[in-house]
Write a structure and sequence with these properties.
alpha/beta; TIM Barrel; eight-stranded parallel β-barrel; two-stranded antiparallel sheet
Length: 291
């Protein structure tokens, strides 16, 4: 089976354009927003647009289980502020509903910041928001929790904590994980060698479970190990490097997990170049993998 590899694609013009943009880049997996990611307001989905999206996706040949939507930037599900939390939880609920209409199986969410209220308080808020959204949206869209880079006041950078959060989510079948390699590295999980990637995925298996891993954000890192800097970089050109990127990619691929790239676009490389590099590393002999 061909590897499921792609990137985050634009919906500029119309949501169904995401499929066109994915095909144009040679994606066999992709991620998108279903709305303006920088605002709270979301234009209601038009029936013709959702039908066009579904038709284009079917005709594209891209596996329906290899696509995901990402939550917009503003929501903070760990916020101690009642108004901010309610708005964030409502946005997640609506995003799950929108994904159901579009036929998107996963929505990836950041876990938020407790803003100084403490990790336990932040986790309580987060779990409340997650469970509320899963209960309110009457579909089978899975909410994927994305590990964080360990920035101040963030929750979910520690794999043990991530596992604890998941264990409190109900119903369990509606939740999974999107593992970001850059975030894991920034949080202190080494991924620079085949050996260290195997160890990190071993910790993931121990604390979270590989069966819960549904998407991997394959990103190199601009910051050093444990830097707590959420700075993505081109595949193989960052602090993780080619060996680690290859091992992480192959581990995900062996488990049938789609690889979504969120890498920069600059004079060094664009999306097409980074996807090509990821495929090159997947195909390289001796690249290895954790499982």
């Amino acid at each position: 089976m061909a590897a499921k590899v792609g990137c985050h694609v634009s919906i500029s013009g119309s949501i169904d354009m995401a499929v066109d943009n994915a095909v144009q880049r040679g994606c066999t997996a992709f991620q998108m927003f279903t709305r303006n990611p920088r605002g709270w307001h979301a234009k209601e989905l038009d029936g013709q647009v959702t039908a066009a999206f579904r038709t284009k996706l079917k005709e594209s040949g891209i596996d329906g289980d290899a696509i995901c939507a990402h939550m917009p930037y503003l929501p903070n599900l760990a916020s101690p502020d009642d108004a901010g939390f309610s708005k964030s939880a409502a946005t997640l609920t609506d995003e799950v509903r929108r994904c159901g209409l579009l036929g998107i199986p996963y929505v990836v969410t950041h876990l938020g910041s407790h803003l100084g209220s403490g990790e336990e308080a932040g986790m309580d808020r987060l779990v409340k928001g997650l469970n509320g959204a899963a209960g309110a949206a009457k579909n089978d869209v899975m909410i994927l929790l994305e590990n964080t880079a360990g920035q101040k006041n963030s929750v979910g950078s520690d794999l043990g904590q991530l596992g604890d959060i998941l264990d409190r989510c109900r119903p369990a079948g509606r939740f999974g994980v999107c593992l970001d390699t850059c975030h894991a590295f920034a949080a202190g999980y080494d991924m620079r060698t085949k050996k260290s990637v195997k160890e990190t995925f071993g910790l993931f298996e121990e604390h979270v479970g590989m069966d819960r891993l549904k998407i991997v954000h394959l990103n190199d890192a601009k910051g050093e190990l444990g830097s707590k800097r959420d700075r993505h970089y081109h595949i193989g050109l960052g602090e993780i490097g080619e060996e680690g990127m290859a091992a992480a990619a192959r581990t995900a691929d062996r488990n049938g997990i789609p690889l979504i790239l969120e890498t920069p676009i600059d004079e060094k490389r664009d999306d097409v170049g980074n996807i090509a590099k990821a495929r090159e590393l997947l195909a390289a002999r001796g690249a290895g993998g954790a499982r």
